[in-house]
Amino acid sequence: MSKFCKVTCKKNLFGKQISHSNKKSRRIFKANIFRKRIFILNKKKWITSFISNKGLKTLNKNFFKSLNILYEK
């Protein structure tokens, strides 16, 4: 299974590296993806998933927004 972020769907991109003399060689632009354990509140269990740094920030932001909604009501 290839690594890709479950939240943002980021994955590796392919392109070309161009030198000063305009030689072109293939390269891979790697996404910032790592394995992270996440606690799911509804199911009350831990899951392990591949997630990017931006996806982790998105999850944290949405989690704290939902907590604020719960505390306000």
Written description of the protein model:
By secondary structure, this protein is an alpha+beta fold. It is 27% helix and 38% strand. It has one helix and four strands. The strands form two sheets. It has a two-stranded antiparallel ribbon. The chain has a two-stranded antiparallel ribbon with strand order 3-4. Strand 1 (13-18) and strand 2 (24-29) form a beta hairpin. The longest helix has 20 residues, at 53-72. The relative contact order is 0.21. The mean pLDDT is 84.
Proportion of β residues? 35-45%
Structural class: alpha+beta
How far apart the termini lie comes to 42 Å
The strand line-up of the biggest sheet is 1-2
> Mind telling me the C-alpha Rg?
18 Å
The major beta sheet can be summarized as: 2 strands, antiparallel
| Uncertain residue ranges | none
- How do the helices and strands follow one another from N- to C-terminus? EEEEH
List keywords for this structure.
single chain, two-stranded antiparallel sheet, two-stranded antiparallel ribbon, 4 strands
List the helices and strands and how they pair.
Layout: E1 13-18, E2 24-29, E3 33-40, E4 45-52, H1 53-72
Antiparallel strand pairs: 1-2, 3-4
What's this model, at a glance?
The chain is α+β, with helices and mostly antiparallel strands. Helices cover about 25% and strands about 40% of the residues.
